[in-house]
Amino acid sequence: MQIETFFEQQKIAVAGKTLVVATSGGPDSIALLDLLRNYRKHHDFELVVAHFDHQLRPDSGDEVRLLEAYCQQYNLPLINGKWPVSLHPKVGIEAAARQARYDFLTKVAKKVGASYLLTAHHNDDLLENILLKLLRSGNPEEMNSLQMVGEMQGVKILRPLLSYTKDHLLAYDHQAGLSYIEDQTNAEDDTLRNRLRHHVVPILKQEQADLTENTLRFNQQMELLTSLAQRQMAQIAPAERFLQTAYRAPVSALDKMTSLERNYYWQQQLWRQQHLRLGTALKGYLLKDYQGYEYLLPGKLPPASTPKLLELEQAIRFRGQDFIVSEKRLSLMKVGEFCSTEAKFKFGSLPRGTKLLLKDGHHAKAKKMFAQNAIPLELRHLCLTIMTLDGTVVFVEQVYQNQQIAENARKYYIYSKSL
């Protein structure tokens, strides 16, 4: 096995840089660690070993001792981390463990100023990931989430072993006389990934001798096609985050798209702005055209908020955001202003049927003003509303602010602390 080919093909120069290698103590990551150690003999770079103990098995401490011995033998720095048992969730522990591990690894990479974080994902992992995501979502981007060169939380991630199988890595370990620890839970059939690994992948390998090459080809060509699609979508105006719960884009920007293309556009918006990956069905979301906009609405929205007493100069919580109402100009994001002779107010959702006072002294139905501002019925209760203690509305976010300048009226400013 040669790791030089990866760096040459990807045109990655490591001289003078720091590399962090994620190492569990298993055969895959031990092989990667040893390959990098040998590669460093002819290239000038710093190599830092990072190990994260999930504390999911009673013998996990053996991995630490194995790595300590290896790193001591070759004078390599080792940084250990632990996942407190108190933080282990009762459900979804596999996904939570993965998130905790990557949080730790990216923090280590940033702390030591590493240019790259390397993981030991191999071709079997790649195939399992394709099958797993095909079953769970059918989303091509999720099926192809393991890239040779990627990024997570601002850290460049390299996976130099994707062209090698598990058997290749085991053969390397045995030839090099390397010690490693087998995770006994990998032999169990309690997870879908393990069932695919034990029962499906062996059959596929028997049926197709070129499966390793085909898996890698799928990975590379899907990356190219996805990149081209993302580049095309980037030419379309990005969606606007609206009331912190929904998104909207002008219908005119999307009306020439097919249904599948529109869904892909929204999928990209969610990934770009919230790092949410959803299939083309946009499960859990609803698309709605209203007044020249296409809205992406969550299937489950926060309920209407009963009016509460508002404290001036103090943070108030509405729709998961913190707002401040003040007579002063503050160095925060201003979301509106209003005039009032009153000094005490309530805040919450706008009561249905409310009429709003216009500048000319007439009143208008609130629903008419919502329509004029292209706010659909589903979102109207999420607009921050401020009213006097007798219920007179002086401000509705995105819709209305009282500008009646009466004698002794004061001007109030509304700021967001969360934007």
Overall domain count: 3
Rg, please? 28 Å
Query: Structural class, from helix and strand content?
Result: alpha+beta
Estimate the mean pLDDT confidence.
91
Which homologous superfamily in CATH is the superfamily of the largest domain? Answer: HUPs
What is the CATH architecture descriptor of the largest domain?
3-Layer(aba) Sandwich
Which residues sit in consecutive blocks of at least 5 with pLDDT less than 50? none
| Percent in strands | 15-25%
Ends apart, CA distance between termini: 50 Å
CATH domain class of the largest domain? Alpha Beta
**Major sheet, described briefly?**
6 strands, mixed
Number of strands: 21
Strand order of the largest sheet: 3-2-1-4-6-5
Approximate shape: elongated
The number of helices is 12
In short:
With 419 residues, the protein is an alpha+beta fold.
Description of the molecule:
The chain has 419 residues and is an alpha+beta fold. It has three domains: 224 residues, Rossmann fold (3-Layer(aba) Sandwich), CATH 3.40.50.620; 63 residues, no CATH class; 109 residues, no CATH class. It is 35% helix and 23% strand. A hairpin with a 2-residue loop joins β9 and β10. α2 crosses α7, α5 packs across α8 and α5 crosses α9. The protein starts with a helix and ends with a strand. The model has no long low-confidence stretch (mean pLDDT 91). Its main location: cytoplasm. Belongs to the tRNA(Ile)-lysidine synthase family. This is tRNA(Ile)-lysidine synthase. InterPro entries: Rossmann-like_a/b/a_fold, TilS/TtcA_N, tRNA_Ile_lys_synt, tRNA_Ile_lys_synt_N. It is found in: Cytoplasm.
